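Most newcomers find our protein records easier to grasp once they have seen one. To make this concrete, we reproduce a full record directly below:

…
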Amino acid sequence: MKTKFIIFSLVSSIFLFADYTIQTAQANALETRLKAQFYIQKPIQKEFDKQIEEKPQALSQQLPYYPARAKEAKIEGSLEIKFDVDENGQVQNIRMFDSPAVDVFGLSLLQAMEHWRYETGKPINNLKMIIEFKLSNIN
């Protein structure tokens, strides 16, 4: 009986330790991924749609991060985007035009744009903007 209890205790300890090791490895991988992002320090907007007379007033525009793989490979690029601003000042219906830069910078820009806020009031559709990702803009 004591032998069974000792074996059970050892096996349980091994499984608990293995689970702890996996969780630690996952936490370390997440921390590494977060550290691998480089934050853009300068404005990145190259151009706003010149055809729209009443441009909405931006209240906040979170800057996207510069992906580590793009920095390491010294990749720069620009994204042409269209989006709508609803009556609450929130960005909706983000569209990116196909370019090689979408694969590299698209996710970063989408995540940042989810936090953009504009002046409330009249909704505006099809705002067009060109966003540049340049190595000289990161820390």
